[in-house]
Amino acid sequence: MTTRLFPVFADLRDRTVLVAGGGTVARRKVAALLQTGARIVVGAPVLDRELEAWAAEDRIETIMGDFVDAWLDDVWLVIAATDDAAVNRAIAAAAESRRIFANVVDDAELSTIHLPARVERGPLQIAISSGGGAPMLARHIREHLEIQFDDSLGALAELLQKSRARIRAKLADLPARRRFYDRVLAGPIPALLRRGDTTSAERTLQANIDTASPQPVGRVALVGAGPGDPGLLTLRALRLLNEADVILHDRLVSDGVLALARRDAELIEVGKHVGGDHHATQSSIHRLLVEHAKSGKRVVRLKGGDPFVFGRGGEELEVLQSHGIDFEVVPGITAAVACGAYAGIPLTHREHAQSVRFVTAQTKSDDDGIDWHALAQDRQTLAFYMGVSGLERIRDRLVACGRCPNTPVALVENGTRSGQRVVIGTLAELPELAAAHRVSAPAILFVGEVAALATRLHWFGAAPLLGFPASARGATLARAA
Ligand code: SAH
Domain 336-480, CATH 3.30.420.100 — does that match? Predict the structure, then answer.
C-alpha cells in the first residue's frame, strides 16, 4: 500500500507561523497567510519592499538576521522559503525535532506539510495536490477549475452558510438535508447568482426552506445508460447517477457507467432470472421500484441504450403511475445509433437508404407480427436488436420476401466498448458469418447497403472483419465497397 498525504484545512487564527526568507517566494506565501488571521513572523537578513510595507503596517512581525533555532519558539507552522537549500534543510531539521510541521518551498521530500494549489470562491476553497509528485498537473487542474467555476460559486457558498442554521433547524435528519441541498443546487438559485440577482436567490432559498418537508418523497428516474462508453451518457443522466440512493440496473449497463454513480448509492443488478423467466424478473423489478420509492429513496432505473427502445420502460412507468409515484425519463443513446456511429455505418445515406427501422427479432413463431415484406423493401436500413440467435430466420424471411441476397450486412458486437468487433458480409451468408466469428451478445445486426461503408469509415477499435476468415468472399466484398 502506498502512503498518501492527509488533506486538512488548518485554522491558523492567532497562531504563530514563521516564514523564513525575505524574497519573492516568501512574500507570496505571506500574502496567502495574511487572509488566515495567523500571527505571521518573517525572519530574514533582508526583506523585499512589500514585506517591509506589511511590517510597517503591523500586518507582519519581523526578525532580522540568519535563522537560529529560537525562531521556532511558539511556532505552529514554519515555511522555509529562503533561497539557500542548506538553510532550508536546517530549518526543516530543527522543525522536525520540535514536532513542528514545516513546508520547504519546492522540496516535497523535506516538507512535512504541503501547500496545495487552490481555487477560491468566497468561503469555498478547492485544494489540489499531487503529493508533490506532479505539481504541474495540479496546476493544470487548477486552471481548469478556475474556468469551470465562476465567481457566483462564492456567493452561493456565502448564501448557504448564512442559511445553514435555519436549514438545520427545519431538517434535523441528514438524508433529508442532503435531498434538500441537492434540490436547491439543481434548481434556479445558482443561475440567479450567476446573473448577480442575490435578492431573488435569497428569496427563493427562503421559500425552499419554508416548504421543505422532513418526510422524504421518493421518486424514480428511468434513465438511459447508452451502449457502454460512459462518454455517451447525457449530463442529466450523470447528475441523477450522482444523486441516487438506489440504482436498479440491467446487466447490459457497463461498469464504466456504474463507476460514475454516487459512491454510497446502493447498486442492484436486476438482470434476467436464471432460467430466463421474464415474467418473474419483470415483476420483481416492479416490486423493487415501488418498495424503494415508497420508502422515500431517489431511485434510478438504469437501462442500456434508451429506456423506451426495446426496454420495457413503458411497462415500468405504468406500474409507478398506478402507485402514485413521481417519475421522469431520461433518454439514452440507443444501440442502433451508437453502434452505427462507432462502426462507421451511417444509418441513412442519400444514395443508399432513406429510412431506418429498429426491429426486434426476438419472437420465434412465424406469426410474429412483423411485416417482412415491408422490411424487405430496398433503400432502407434495418437494425435488428437481440438478433444473434435468430439470424437464419431473418435471412430466410428477408430473402423470401424479395431482399437481394447480396445486400451487405454488419454485426456489431460490444459496440462502443473496448472489445468492439464489426463483422461484415452479405445477407446470404449471415448465419454462417456469425457462427464463423462466434459473434455473441450484445450484438446488433444492420442490413442494408450502408453496412458495407464500415470498411471505409470505421474509426473505432479493430478494423472490420470481412466475410469468412480467409475466404475469397471477404475480398470480393472489400472490392465492391
Ligand atoms: N434499450 C436498449 C436495447 C435493449 S435490447 C437500447 O436502446 O439500446 C438489448 C439489445 O440491444 C441487445 O441484444 C443488442 O442487440 C443491443 N445492444 C445493446 N447494447 C449493445 C452494444 N453495446 N453493442 C451491440 N448491441 C447492443
Answer: no
Interatomic CA distance for residues 443 and 424, integer angstroms: 13
Name the catalytic one among 250, 297, 303, 306. Answer: 250
Q: Which CATH code is given to the segment(s) 219-333?
A: 3.40.1010.10
- Measured in angstroms, how far is the CA atom of residue 293 from the centroid of ligand 1? 27
The predicted model scores a pTM of: 0.70
Report the alpha-carbon distance of residue 384 to residue 451 in Å, rounded. Answer: 13
Q: What is the largest CA-CA distance in the chain?
A: 98
What's the rounded Cα separation, in Å, for the pair 28 and 115?
Answer: 12
Domain boundaries defined on the chain: 16-115, 152-211, 219-333, 336-480
DSSP classification of residue 389: G
Q: Which residues on neighbouring strands pair with residue 302, listed in sequence order?
A: 223, 249
Whether 23 and 83 have beta carbons less than 8 Å apart is answered as yes
- Is the Cβ–Cβ distance between 38 and 18 less than 8 Å? no
Cβ count near 455 (within 10 Å): 21
Q: How far is the CA of 249 from the centre of ligand 1 (A)?
A: 14
CATH assignment, 16-115: 3.40.50.720
Given this model, what pLDDT does residue 467 score?
Answer: 84
Annotation says 250 is catalytic:
yes
Convert the pLDDT of each residue in 3-31 to its tens digit: 789 999 999 999 999 999 999 999 999 99
Angle between the N-to-C axes of helices 198-211 and 174-186, in degrees from 0 to 180, rounded to the nearest 10: 140
Active-site residue 272, yes or no?
A: yes
Instruction: Give residue 277 CA to ligand 1 midpoint distance, Å.
Output: 19
Interatomic CA distance for residues 462 and 341, integer angstroms: 14
- CA 423, CA 453: separation in Å to the nearest integer? 12
The residue assigned the cell 416492479 is 286
Contact (Cβ atoms closer than 8 angstroms) between residue 112 and residue 47: no
- CA nearest to 261, candidates 283, 279, 238: 238
Q: What is the pLDDT of residue 476?
A: 44
Q: How far is CA 258 from the centre of its chain?
A: 9
Gap between the Cα atoms of 452 and 408, Å rounded: 6
Q: Is the CB of 305 under 6 A from ligand 1?
A: yes
Q: Which residues of the chain have pLDDT under 70?
A: 1, 272-277, 363-367, 468-481
